[in-house]
Prior knowledge:
The chain is of the alpha+beta class. It is 27% helix and 23% strand. A 3-stranded antiparallel beta sheet has the order 1-2-3, with helices on one face. Helix 1 (41-55) packs across helix 2.
Amino acid sequence: MVESCDVAGRDRVGFVIPARNPYHPIIAYIAVLPQFRGSGYIDEILAEGTRILQSNDVPPFRASTDLGNVPMARAFTRVGWINFERSIDMTWQ
């Protein structure tokens, strides 16, 4: 399910995809549209994804982000998610 988010009377500012992988319920993808970044909308969008997972009575759920994505890691913390691991995405050139 893709949940697009109306925030503070604005048009869509982003979206969240709550899902389940073979192991855990997760936030599969979350985004704030570029023109709305830096305004704190991520908290409301993440809270909506969290609410959707909770309303489906799922066991503890997880999210991860790469180590360099400090703003997203902080958003998870603000909404109450527990930091359970750290990841680093590498590419070869």
